[in-house]
Amino acid sequence: MSTIIKNGNIATSEKLLKGDIYIEDGIIVDIGENIQRDSDNIIDASNMYVVPGGVDVHTHLNLHTGSAVAVDDFYTGTVAAAFGGTTSIVDHIGFGPQGCSLKHQIDVYHGYADNKAVVDYGFHGVIQHVDDHIINEMKYIVEKEGVTSFKIYLTYDFKLEDQDILRTMKRLGELGAVTAVHCENDGILNYFRNFYLSREMKSPIYHALSRPEEAEEEAVNRMITLASLAGNAPLYIVHDSTAKAAKLIENAKKNKRNVFGETCPQYLFLDETLYNKPDNEGLKYIMSPPLRKKFNQDILWKYIENGTLDVVATDHCPFNFNKEKQYGIGDFSKCPNGAPGIETRLPLLFSEGVMKKRISINKFVDITSTKPAKIFGLYPKKGDIKIGSDADIVIIDPKKNMTIKNDMLHENVDYTCYENFELQGYPVITMSRGEVIVENGQFKGKKGRGKFIRRSVSKV
Ligand code: URP
Ligand code: ZN
Ligand code: ZN
């Protein structure tokens, strides 16, 4: 099967050129001006941007939190991803039973994703305890299972202590694997949570007040120190929500530390005043870290622009407002943490980033696709428009204006945080390995067509 995409404005993280792309059997075979080849399909991309498919390296499909299960599974979540122009995800594996092996949860997640996903997918492993068995198992997981990054938490039930983090990072660094970290200081959170709950201060705003910026800053600072002591092991800070934490990442990079930074659309577009919405609507925004004060937003954009923040991923972790989120009525601490966003990431960043001239089209490609693919070992198969790469391609119409309504989205959840946001530009075609899976609002893919990606180690 062959396809030619004609006359597009082809954007990579480095270049913008007008031309054609020729695809054969799912692979990009030729890129250039006025390519003359016979092909089964022709797509006219005149006046459109043609970009590499989005790579979302922070999702929580099917996540079991204890009190609730995230309501997008690997089918509904990846259909929504495809509509929003994302063609690969790397999902964060949830915690398993106490003391389980690394492979245990990877097998569980293969069970969740196989025959369901419609775009290609990988998994970040999770380190929930550390002992000799876990340390020895890492090599097998990295080299044989194709899982080359692992998440650790500094809070929640299976948080790790510093000595275990050092052991973990030392070994993962030797293997070339990346340690991704949820950075919040657990003691600070516990103190403030108890402080507010014991005074009957339980409405959604106290979720934010009980997780102050300093808790994130302290944890990021500590992780940069521990990564350095572990031999400059690769460290990836997930969901940076504050300017101060980003400043720490900037300084670490200046000091040649092997640190990468991620933020998410919610920290660029939403702020903590939303927790005070009437009718308990503040519960929609209960996520960790919480939404912050608005002044952070412009500074986070600056850190995207200067390369401190390498990636914008979603942390997609949806719960219905009318069901699971209601557990938090009368007590914010009972509300499952997380919010949807897998479908709106590229449209928001294209409209508010590229069209509003906060970032170039090349930076847009870099933060949504190329850099995450490189950091997490999906590159060059994913993350670029390049000869030999998978033809994971998104066509964006910069003239298509959309007002976001939850009704038009495909996330399996009853709200979006971006209701009524007005966007300039929207993805109109999503292609995965040469197959058009979304075209003009129609899903054309098949359940289960997505393939597991055996990732290599980082290419940055
Ligand atoms: O609130 C959030 N972000 N929930 C998902 C799990 C995590 O901490 O990333
Ligand atoms: Zn997290
Ligand atoms: Zn997360």
From TrEMBL:
Catalytic class of the enzyme: hydrolase
Top-level taxonomic group: Bacteria
Modified residues (N6-carboxylysine): K151
E.C. numbers: 3.5.2.2
Cofactor(s), by name: Zn(2+)
Keywords for the protein's UniProt record, in alphabetical order: Hydrolase, Metal-binding
GO MF, one annotated term: metal ion binding
Hydrolase among keywords: yes
Residue span(s) of domain Amidohydrolase-related: 49-416
Keyword Metal-binding among UniProt keywords: yes
Processing after translation: Carbamylation allows a single lysine to coordinate two divalent metal cations.
Gene Ontology CC annotations of this record: cytosol
Matches recorded under InterPro entries: Amidohydro-rel, Hydantoinase/dihydroPyrase, Metal-dep_hydrolase_composite, Metal_Hydrolase, Metallo-dep_Hydrolases_sf
SUPFAM superfamilies according to UniProt: Composite domain of metallo-dependent hydrolases (SSF51338), Metallo-dependent hydrolases (SSF51556)
Cited NCBIfam families: D-hydantoinase
Family indicated by similarity: Belongs to the metallo-dependent hydrolases superfamily. Hydantoinase/dihydropyrimidinase family.
Protein name in the entry: Dihydropyrimidinase
